[in-house]
Amino acid sequence: MIVDQDALEPKKQPPRELIVHRNSEINTLSSIFEPVTNGHQTSGAFIYGPPGSGKTCAANVLLNEIPATTVTENGTSGEPIETAYIDCYNGKSRRDVYQELLETLGEGPAQTRPSAATDQLRRQILDAIDGHLIVVLDEADQIGEKDVLKELYEMTGVALLPIVTKSHQLFADAEDRLDSRLTALTPIPFRSYDESTLVKILQARANVGLERGVVEREHLQIIAERSRNDARRAISILKNTVLHARSEGAGEVTTDLLDKGSPMSQSDVIRSHLSAISRSQRICLEVIGKIGPETSGPITDSYCSDMRIDEERSQRAIRDWLSDFKTRDLICERDVQNGPAYELREIVQQVLDGEIEP
Ligand SMILES: Nc1ncnc2c1ncn2[C@@H]1O[C@H](COP(=O)(O)OP(=O)(O)OP(=O)(O)O)[C@@H](O)[C@H]1O
Ligand SMILES: [Mg+2]
Question: Residue 53: CB within 6 Å of ligand 1?
């Protein structure tokens, strides 16, 4: 029934031929970073778009296609080009980012530099860059100290590619938006997938991953409709349905099996979103679970009085989180008299309570 399990695995980077529809974004990315391959500087770019729109996937394609060295005018190999992929989920600090970069640059693990000051780590990176360095900062909005972005941007030889959900998240506040440094990064929007694109993504996975006839196009259409424009969700539903069909001894997917496959993958998707948010954001979610439905003011007050937090947040910052939680489908919004009120989705509460086991 299953020919290639990797093709059904949302956590695995797919081979280039399984990536459908994102050619124009990937070509734009390649053209922005191409000067580096000829030994020149680029102003870099940033990707933004909703969850499951292929941002991480596209950035990985770019990194995989970057050659190991620049090419000189007479066609010979020039300076080395290093690449680094840093996942900033769970709120990385400026120090964490530098430590990870040093490790990528071959300077050994963080434990070998326990007492080095963060500024010293920054200087060490400059010394370690031997040519060019392209840095992807995935989930860059999770970085606690945004200054690290500007510092990296200003390093000679470094080209940046941060990834965020919403374009404004790259800039910590209004003042940053006026800061000309990061605004030089070219924005590359990743629009959410429509259902027909999701069907194409699923069909490509099914062609490679499944025996012929295991899943019909009409079932892929139903999966697409249930996926809320999110390719991760779509692939996850397909995988769970097929695994469920196999465990039931069925030779093909049916609508009934599909119904049983969907709730399971919803919790998979939620779990992956929960692992992508910071500890502080998770505390905020738990606060919403306790007091919701509630508007942003009382949520901010309860959050700030929670014993577990290490830093108070402004209502504006909490509103940004609420918008992120909504995009990730972790909370829902209701209109009440004094503005929108937020509450945790029931399934999120169940996952947080551990009622739904992985
Ligand atoms: N155009 C595509 N063709 C094939 N597979 C895709 C495509 N876009 C996304 N996928 C797959 O969908 C899943 C989610 O994609 P990805 O992780 O790149 O999303 P994302 O935009 O980074 O989401 P998030 O904001 O949650 O990190 C991955 O398994 C990826 O391989
Ligand atoms: Mg991603």
Answer: yes
